[in-house]
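[09:14] KT: can someone run the structure on this one? pasting the chain below
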Amino acid sequence: MFQYIVLIGAVVQLVGIYVYIRATVRGETKPNRVTWLMWSVAPLIGSVAAFSDGVRWAALPVFMSGFAPLLVFIASFVNPKSFWKLEKFDYICGACSILALVLWGITKEPLIAIIFSIASDGFAAVPTIIKSWKHPDSESVEAYTTGLFNSLTSFFALRTFGISELAFPIYLVLVNSSLIAAVYKGRLKKIIAK
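[09:31] RB: done, structure tokens below
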């Protein structure tokens, strides 16, 4: 029965990503390509690693957390005005993200893969969290809100409550909450400044 909750979470996240993609294609939202590319790679690796360690339905939200950003990354190429101009810091975070993935490849241990995937995803998130705070109009919260909902559904599908099952869903709840807070705090800061 709990797998249905996880499936609902996946569908809800797809709806949120559709809204984000539509805003991206229109040029209303400007995704950071480094963030969204790395957000697709790390969770996809994390979900494969979790699945190889015996995790089943609880891995679907993690998979969706990689698949949905891949769609956003691809959509960012449709409209030339729909991406964020990358700076040196973005590339540094991207390099740290890639380094974490390389370190996972060296270890080939599922738990280590999950830890390095989280590190990779976290390094990828930093530029967008900063951008969301400084330029909240360049972001939409729908993808993060539905991503948060999708992440929370993982907890309904847990079987062993082991680190392989818990680590990425807990991280995803924290990062999506941080992104939502950054956008709203940034918007509130702009309103107060006026």
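[09:33] KT: thanks! Residues 2-193 form one domain.
[09:34] RB: yep, looked fine to me
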